[in-house]
Amino acid sequence: MVKAGNRSGRPRAGEERLSREAILTAALRIVDDEGIDALTMRRLAATLEVNPMSLYHHLPNKAAVLAGLAELVFAGLEYPDPGDAVPWDEQLKDAARAYRNALRAHPNLALQVLSDTSAVSDVVVVTMEPFYRALDRAALSSRQIFESANTLIDFIHGFSLGEASVRADTFELAPDLLTRVEGLPAGKAPILTRIVQELGPEGLAYDFDSGFESGLSTVTAGIGATVRRR
What we know:
By secondary structure, this protein is mainly alpha-helical. The chain folds into 2 domains: 15-60, Arc Repressor Mutant, subunit A; 74-229, Tetracycline Repressor, domain 2, CATH 1.10.357.10. It has helices spanning 20-34, 41-48, 52-55, 62-74, 88-105, 107-113, 117-127, 129-137, 142-166, 174-182, 190-204, 208-229, and strands at residues 170-171, 206-207. A two-stranded antiparallel ribbon has the order 1-2. The longest helix has 25 residues, at 142-166.
């Protein structure tokens, strides 16, 4: 006989359809809409209309949920090897663009991923193979592959943090920068002054897409120089 107030072994309405994928999909929706701080196991259970304890059968804690989100968002980056038909540097750029796009699609998750060492490790496991594959095709040593990949990922992470904080396609740098440069004492920062004045408002407009491509080309060219030295 079951005492009043105790649950039987039967699941509540909704729990029979509960799955790891359903939990992670709901968690990602919360993070995207409201930020990482809004994600709790209790809030997640309420969204799914299930008992909080039922979540732990699939994901034991919030850390496991975050690791699962990294897998959910980034696992699609493990695309097939394009082979030698695509040069190694283009393969590397394609991997970088795909990684940046995944971060950009979920900026709230990106901020968490990039500030949590365990989350970074989760992401590395599911995203780094295309980077390592391209660099291995460039015939770099294991140490050079490791360091080159880290340098490129650091660039993407830093860029993504700035992009996520702005939440726009462009950054209006020109008006304030022009005003500040015009107010500098004569002879102070002459090169900066000359360049800013030569570029003008249109030349100083910062577009994140073109800024990313410029930085990506610079980093890839540096790796290419290492390849040529070998």
